[in-house]
Each structure stands twice: as structure tokens, then as C-alpha cells.
Amino acid sequence: MIKSTIVNDRPRREAAAMETFLESPNEESFTELFLTLTPQLVSFFRSHGCAMDLSEDLSQEVMLTVYRKSRQVRDRTRFRSWLFTIGRHALYRHCRKQWPGADGVDLESVIDANTKPAGPPAFEFHHWMSFLESREREALTLRFVEEWEYHEIAAAKAIPIGTVQWRVFNAKKKLAARLKAPGLPRREAA
Known about the structure:
Elements: H1 2-23, H2 27-47, H3 52-69, H4 79-98, H5 120-129, H6 134-145, H7 150-157, H8 161-179
Helix pairs in contact: 1-2, 2-3, 3-4, 4-7, 6-8, 7-8
């Protein structure tokens, strides 16, 4: 009950922190914005296979860019998309530094060698997710691990909400088929 109240309050807190910061960008308003958005940025980078320390570093880099370029925001309704676009660019820059000869690196297939599963459940989860397409894996992770709402994922990825719902649906369908134990009887179509 309490968790659902906190989760449902997040968009309002984000909007208030963003409005306050954009109206008067100062240290206090930026601190509030930073504390509100940084955990989501860290989750975003983690969902792309970055280690925790790298995720935190990239999140700080993104928030510094937001602080420096806040005057360039024209459409405040697209602030979240702008934020995660900066995040994707930061990730691209990091990958280009790591692998300078690879111009066409597919970020979805890159997994940081320092990423270690937290234990057997995390390992199983990673294994279950490995056969999904990267977009489906990311949608499932953001929706069910990070507990983002569909509209938040759509805003972060700058895609329609229906696309997010479709990716989650397809991923769940593939997972259900893949995780079905071979010895269990299948239900016959009626």
C-alpha cells in the first residue's frame, strides 16, 4: 500500500522538481532534481549492462549536462525524453572511448565485464532474459524490475506508449513459452 503510494507520487515529484529547477536554476533546485532523477538514470544505465560505479558516474555526467544546458529546454513536456537522450549520448561516448575502433557498436549487445550477478536469482534472471531481443529485455527490466509505468518508459525512450506495451506483452509471451517446464502437460486449445 505504502509502496504504491510512493511509486504513484513519483511523476508529481519529478514534475515539481523539474519545474522548480527550470524556473530558477540554483543549487537548491538542482539538488532536488538530482535526487529525484539520478536513481532512474542509474537504473537506465544498469539496464544497458553497465556496472554500478559506471552507472553512477554516467548519471552524474548526465545531470551535469542538464545543469549546464537547462536554458536550452524549449518544450518542458519533453524534458524526460531530453534527459534520457543525453543519457544515451553519454553511453555512446563511453563505448566509443572503451572500444575506439568499433564505430558501429550495438550498445544493446555490450555487457560490461565488471558486471557480476548478485547471486543465483540474479543469474537466473539474466539467463532468462538473454534470449529476448534487447528492446524487449529493456522494456521488461524497466517495467518490472525498476517498476516504471508504461508512460514513463515511453517518455524515456521517446516512443509511443503502445509500442512499450507491445514489447512487454511480447517479452512476457516469449518468457512464458521459454520457462514452461518440458514435463508439464500443455493446455489444448478449445
